[in-house]
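Re: the request from the purification team.
They wanted to know what the chain is likely to look like in 3D before they choose a buffer screen. I agreed to run a prediction and write the result into the notebook, where they can find it.
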Amino acid sequence: MVYNQIKHILPHFQFEGFYVSACEVHSGNINNTYHLQYASGGAIRHYILQSVNTYVFHDPYAVMENIERITSHLRAKFLAAGEDPSRRVLEIIPTTDGRSLFKNGGYWRAYRYIENATAYDTITRPMQFEQAGHAFGEFQRLLCDFPASELHTTIPDFHNTTKRFYAFVRAVSEDKAGRVRELEPEIEFMFDRRRAMGSIVRELDRGTLPLRVTHNDTKINNVMIDNDTDRAVCVIDLDTVMPGSALYDYGDAIRFGASTAAEDEEDLSKIALDMDKFALFTRGFLSEVDGFLTPHEIDLLPLGMRVITCELAMRFLTDYIEGDLYFKVKSPHHNLIRARAQMRLLEDMEAKADAVQAFIDRR
């Protein structure tokens, strides 16, 4: 029973009213999440309770400090614009001693649930992906004056593709799982693109790309869409918010949302860049960021698509070579299937590079 798993945690948060029910939410891949209902004054209040995955996030206090600072900044922006922030930004429910985390074996936190809105795992109507573009573009715009360098890096070198390539080379050399002999085409694929993969890192190091606050998990299911209007309400899942490049956020959103197939599709003929979905997200995103992203950043948005797609393909392939230590797998070849799927998507992105660039240039 779900209640028995969390009953010793509930009294330590400032929930309003009396406990009614709880159910586990299974859509997330990292943290354990529960949807709570409390009765208060004749109304039902909804909350989200989560335990933080400390295997992924080694310093939960740093994660929460980032979230507190970001949500405070966003709330102030909405208030200054005369907008009610209650459904527009995550609201942390404090513990009974006024903190954002409760430690008891694990680390627990709570948020007010955003009602009458849905986080979609897959796009059911085209407008939703354009609204996701608006949401992540607005996220960038509202935080453009936030000092990104002051945020904690919650996952070190998360998008340092240069270091990830070195880790890949080391994995190939060590061949711990004895799988390298079957992977000559895949390994050659990564070596052929090694310089392009490190291009964003090099530009950040040189200062030719500005350091910005980035979300780093820009899937559509991290945007709450209003059930009545189909408009984006709130960007959620802020655990990976840290310093980075806007190219990463844009690129990952396109990689995930504008592919014609799932990340683990075995039939490579089904995998391509959907230009209609690409255009929808890009139109929404550019309408928010045009005017504060630099011309150089906007010009390099297609590079972000390709770098992030190649980076993930390499991460899947590295994990396969090392014996599937990081990503959860459903079969012995699951990570290899994932890697090949991302490689095929990247090839199609490369083939459509001129059309992609032309669309962005017409903004």
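For the purification team: The CA atoms of residues 38 and 269 lie 49 Å apart.
Please add any questions underneath this entry.
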